[in-house]
Amino acid sequence: MRIDVSTIKDTKGASVEVQLSEAMGSLSAAGRELTCSGPVDVRAKVTNTGHGAMLVQGRARASLEAACDRCLAPFDLDVVSKFEGHYWKGREDGRPARAYGGDGADGGDELEYHGDFVDIGPEVRENLALAIPIRLVCSEECRGLCPSCGKNLNEGPCDCPAPPGDVRLAGLLDLCRPGRAGDRD
Ligand SMILES: [Zn+2]
Ligand SMILES: [Zn+2]
């Protein structure tokens, strides 16, 4: 996922806005691999901030093939992520420019571009993956599966006896009952 910066790379303060749409295969987050159901859409603005640095600010959107954690049904998960990064002009021979990362011991966060193109693919991928929720649910109202018979309760109630919810609720109400009047200080 590359942005052509040839028109702004020699002018400090110049910027260019782009829209990209590119297939990304799949994203992995929290131990699961989710396949993109379409191309990833990106809108980004690149600004030449001087000294060969490019500031990239953008927004990425992906649609992923997910399965609900409650009812197991497949659904489309929309993920939107903002990202921002400074890209420094790398060496023409493509080797890493160690100078930017100090002694090189902890310079892993330095981003680089080479020639006329800034490749934002890795950062878009990383930020989208971070935006994937830990719990995947098809809808906040999803009723899930019956723990006894396994029926999808979104399709209607099952024939299992109702859980003794009112008994537990009575216990909770007992706990919440205003009892002792606490003195403040
Ligand atoms: Zn569900
Ligand atoms: Zn049931």
Shape: rod-shaped
> How much helical structure, as a percent, in the residues?
10-25%
Q: What small molecules are bound in this structure?
A: zinc ion
Order of helices and strands: EEEEEEEEEHH
Unreliable runs: 99-108
Determine the N-to-C terminus distance: 62 Å
Q: How many individual helices?
A: 2
Notes on the structure:
This protein is mainly beta and 185 residues long. It has two domains: 129 residues, no CATH class; 36 residues, no CATH class. Helix content is 12%, strand content 37%. The protein has two helices and nine strands. Strands 2, 3, 4, 5, 6, 7 and 8 form a seven-stranded mixed beta sheet that branches. A two-stranded antiparallel ribbon has the order 1-9. The chain is rod-shaped, with a radius of gyration of 26 Å. About 5% of the residues have low confidence. The chain binds zinc ion (2 copies). The site of one zinc ion has 7 residues, from loops.
